[in-house]
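Troubleshooting log. The previous structure file for this entry was overwritten by mistake, so regenerating from the original sequence record. Sequence copied from the archived sheet and checked twice against the printout by T.R.
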Amino acid sequence: MSKKYNVFGIGNALVDIVTEVNDQFLKDHNIEKGLMTLVDEEHQTRVYKAIHESVSNKQCGGSAANSIIAVSQFGGSSFYSCKVANDELGHFYMKDLKSNGVETNLHEESLETGITGKCLVMTTEDASRTMNTFLGITSNYSRTEIKDDALRDSQYLYMEGYLVTSENGLDAMKHAKKIAEENGVKTALTFSDPSMVKYFKENMQSVVGASVDLLFCNEEEALLYTGKDSISEAREALKNEAKRFVITLGKNGAMIFDGDTFIDIEPYKVKAIDSNGAGDLFAGAFLYGITNGHSYADSGKLASLASSQVVTQFGPRLEWHQAKDILNRLHQF
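Regenerated output below.
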């Protein structure tokens, strides 16, 4: 029996505000480079005022949202469960999500009073991305926002690792995973950021539990989570945590474990100017591939092509025509 959605995603709803800064700016504002840091509203407002004139774009985001939009851009069907406030940015987020072909639990009449979450994405000349996030109302994200019927009617549940930072977010992840497992929906999880594994490892382990069907992580996250010193040791240890997994290796491509063997995904050499969203896009493209008849190897090629494209421009997402061009290139191999 076919499912309505390829992927049902849960995660934070954040309006991404993208800008370029230099290393001195990060030092002046006591911002730790290369990480996602949760900040209070006062700090974010102060930093936002300092960068306001250099903001290059604004769009609906959050780690899982970027992946779910990628599924839609490549031609898949997706649903995103999230929480925004009844304010200007909340309405902007909802409209932007729907304009990208993603179905959602968000409706005008259901939005609550509060402040929609924002993520300041600051890129430096070395293509490193640093994020300061004020969660706003998405910090109250809970199982209430999850549309159980839509989840049951999906091939994959995709969970954002950032949700482990709050009790209600963690509960939502466990609730969604339980529904998925009871209804034949495969489970996928992204660690999202090294800080999630470093500071919330026990919470993350409680979600992974007796394994997930598919895990996405980068090299640093794999080493931190397994406590191993080498990627060869880490990937063996991850076999006990996930039935299948993808470890992205930046400019060195990626490695995929398909449940039986390891598949090396070659990188595409490009000049990177902004690494923001590369991992999210990789996950989204890969999920599109495996839910639309492509092999793990071909899905890895598609994801590698997509992420190599997105790092050559600012922002975490592709344009629709770029996604179509990448699909056409894949079919030429």
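The chain is about 40% helix and 25% strand. Archived copy saved in two places this time.
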